[in-house]
Amino acid sequence: MLDLERVNSLISKVEDSEHETFKPKNDRFKVGVDLGTAYIVVVVLDEDNNPVACEKQAAEVLRDGVVIDYTGALRIVTELREKLNKRLDTELVNCAIAMPAGTESSVQTHRYVAEGAGFEVTNILDEPSAANAVYQIDNGVVVDIGGGTTGLALLKDGKVVMTADEPTGGTHLSLVLSGNYHVSFEEAESIKQDYARHKEIMPVVRPVVEKMASIVTKHLDKNSADTIYLCGGTCNLTGIEQVFEKQTGIHTIKPKNPFFVTPTGIAMNCII
Questions:
Q1: Whole-angstrom Cα distance, residue 219 to residue 250?
Q2: Residue 193 buriedness (CB in 10 A; 0-12 / 13-18 / 19+)
Q3: Which DSSP category does 38 fall into?
Q4: Rounded to whole angstroms, how far apart are CA atoms 158 and 1?
Q5: What is the rounded distance in angstroms from the CA atom of residue 52 to the CA atom of residue 84?
Q6: How far is the CA of 212 from the CAs of 24, 143, 242, in angstroms?
Q7: Which residues in 163-183 are b (16+ Cβ under 10 Å) and which e?
Q8: What residues pair up with 98 in beta bridges, in sequence order?
Q9: Strand boundaries in 68-114, DSSP class E
């Protein structure tokens, strides 16, 4: 059973750490580098997994979990690391990285980006499993919806027994909005991120959200798990959990800010 209060408290502090640097237990830091389709995020925790600092930047250097602009990704991660080094008055070294399930072939490129920015990669994992470091559920399905892909991890007795990932994510929502409102992709992104317009846009993007939910039902049925746990920036869309629950027939929940769940979980898996 998910302790939603604990998760919301942790993620809220990670969110705050983007603008406020918290005092760490000591100088042993755990870092998570999350190369996403829409954003690159670097989260710093202390050795007890308390949030210390966080930096993020919008980016278009990945597509469907695969790095397509190595130079751009390297530049952004380097800049974020330098910002954090300055904030913490130290040099961050160890980090963990993660990628969508099923994109194992891109592991080396992700590693090269992190190492090129000055990190030493001490752990590599898939994104839904990273998210479960935050959720800490024993049974259920963690569904991570980022900018490019929808990934899932089925957990039984605390162990991941199946993972899957397919290309449909927040970018696809923006493309639909761009076509519907006859605006640029960038304007569609702004519309998507405007919470006041979520009720208006849901009927427009519902077919895409239903397709995301169908990715889950394609890989499991109602007998496989009794709860879906959502995370990823796309899950900030108001009402997405209701669409998933109706489409899958499986109880679906999400925290207040699902955007920071996976990068926080990546950091928690950093070996120091």
A1: 13
A2: middle
A3: S
A4: 11
A5: 10
A6: 38, 10, 13
A7: bbbbbbbbbbbbebbbeeeee
A8: 125
A9: 94-99
**Which is nearest to 192 in space by CA: 144, 147, 152, 258?**
147
CB of 205 closer than 8 Å to CB of 171: no
Helix (H) or strand (E) segment spanning residue 6: helix 4-16
The C-alpha angle with vertex 100 and arms to 134 and 95, in degrees rounded to 5, equals: 60
Give the list of residues 6+ apart from residue 104 with CB closer than 8 angstroms, or none.
Answer: none
* Tens-binned pLDDT, residue by residue, of the chain (272 aa): 789 999 999 999 999 999 999 999 899 999 999 998 888 999 999 999 999 999 999 888 877 667 888 899 899 999 999 999 999 999 999 999 998 776 666 788 889 999 999 999 999 998 888 999 999 999 999 999 988 889 898 999 888 888 888 888 999 999 999 999 999 999 999 999 999 999 999 999 999 999 999 999 998 876 778 899 999 999 999 999 999 999 999 999 999 899 999 999 999 999 99
**CA dihedral over 195, 76, 172, 269, signed as positive or negative:** negative
pLDDT at 103: 63
Tokens coding 199: 């009720």
Provide the residue type at 79 as one letter: E
Length of the chain: 272
| Type of residue at 107 | V
CB 61 within 8 A of CB 67: yes
